[in-house]
Design a protein that fits this description.
Layout (H helix, E strand, L loop, with lengths): L5 E6 L8 E8 L4 E2 L3 E2 L13 E6 L5 E7 L12 E7 L10 E5 L1 E9 L5 E8 L5 E8 L5 E5 L10 E8 L2 E9 L6 E2 L1
């Protein structure tokens, strides 16, 4: 809405190296893109078999990146899959230390931001062996995260989307997930 953007990409390594998550931001003052910065560092590394990252910009100009990571060897769930978040307050030049915002979640399907600093993230999380369920992570303007797992089951590769709308002065989030390869949807 203010004429600048951020983009994210998960890079598949094609070998035994971990995947990597990068973000580039358009500086609205210089009208140039930052070099792509890797945000999934240290314990927040994507690992193998997970390639999901999303970005959103809140009204205060903070760029937020949220990504899911998986166990690097994908065999023993140690460390468990997690969802991580980092932010940049200088148009992507530097990034905060990644913060874990949810355990046993590997896929980030979408993220939306409000002008007053809220984030809503659609996630796919583990629900026991060989089962997954949808979840929503929410960040308030003070930077506190909450995670709510939703009832029901979805397919591991289910896509999802978040839409935000004004509802009489309050912001309402609608999150939709495809429940499986047959295309049914849960909202």
């Amino acid at each position: 809405t203010e004429g600048w953007a951020a983009v994210a990409a998960a890079v598949w390594s094609g070998n035994d190296n971990p995947e990597r998550a990068y973000v580039s931001v358009l500086n609205p003052t210089t009208r140039t893109w930052t070099p792509a910065h890797q945000v999934d560092i240290g314990a927040a590394s994507l690992g193998r078999y997970t390639r999901t990252i999303e970005v959103a910009i809140t009204g205060d100009g903070v760029v937020h990146a949220v990504w899911g990571m998986s166990d690097p060897d994908f065999a023993d769930n140690d460390p468990p899959g997690r969802v991580w978040a980092a932010e940049s307050r200088d148009y992507g030049e530097t990034w905060s230390t990644p913060q874990a915002i949810g355990d046993s979640c590997r896929r980030v399907d979408d993220v939306a931001a409000t002008s007053d600093g809220w984030l809503v993230v659609a996630l796919i999380c583990d629900n026991g062996p060989e089962r997954v369920q949808p979840a929503i992570a929410t960040r308030n303007p003070q930077g506190e995260w909450t995670l709510e797992r939703l009832p029901g089951a979805v397919w591991y590769f289910s896509e999802g989307a978040v839409a935000l709308a004004d509802d009489g002065g309050a912001t309402r989030a609608t999150v939709a997930f495809l429940t499986g390869p047959n295309g049914a949807m849960v909202v």
